[in-house]
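Researcher: Go.
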Amino acid sequence: MNIELRSEVLAMSLRLENLLGDILSVILRLPRKDAKTLGDKGSALSFMSKVDFLYDLKKLTKEQYSQLVVFMEVRNKLMHNLEIDSMEKALESSGKLSKIQPYLKQGVEANELNLEYAFTLFYGKILESLGDALKEIIHDLEAEEQVKEKAKDYDLLETHLELFSDAVDDASDMFDKRFGVDPKEGGVLRQAVMAHFMMKIKERYPDFKFTTAGEEVKEQEVKMDAETK
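Model: Structure:
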């Protein structure tokens, strides 16, 4: 029955399936212990269902998908067919021998021992590839969260900017009335304060996009430059 070979391939399958579950868990932001579809219960997704799902989500390349399909077909031959008791038989009956041959050392015979070793290398490549995919997904999600947090900060900044602009308006009006500034020439204090304030904002947040309040200040800056000249 070659229990040793079957056990080794089954262990490989479990490691790959666990990694596929980790990837889905990260993408879906769903802790595996709380997920019926990602756990070890009867309702959990099968190995190939996870593979298909990730491929549909564009998280697996065609090469990764094809490699996983090859692995599963060979694995199924060994797990579900009592007569398939060697790697050579599993590869030949599944028609996947050509997919494993590139992992044979050049010039070596395609005997049972060498085929088992080649299949192990094939498995190792899949495992490494999925590990890299998981790292990339985590990196992308972290970057996405940073963008969202920055957007929240900028929304808050815009709100504070509008409040500050209103406060400067009130202070400017009080200043003009207190010192009898001609209404036609009023707003000088506001222009000076807001122009300086916006300059500081640009220095602190260079990629901040100003909306209404910002556009108004830009017009004031142009006006002040013209008056200075």
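Model: The mean pLDDT is 82.
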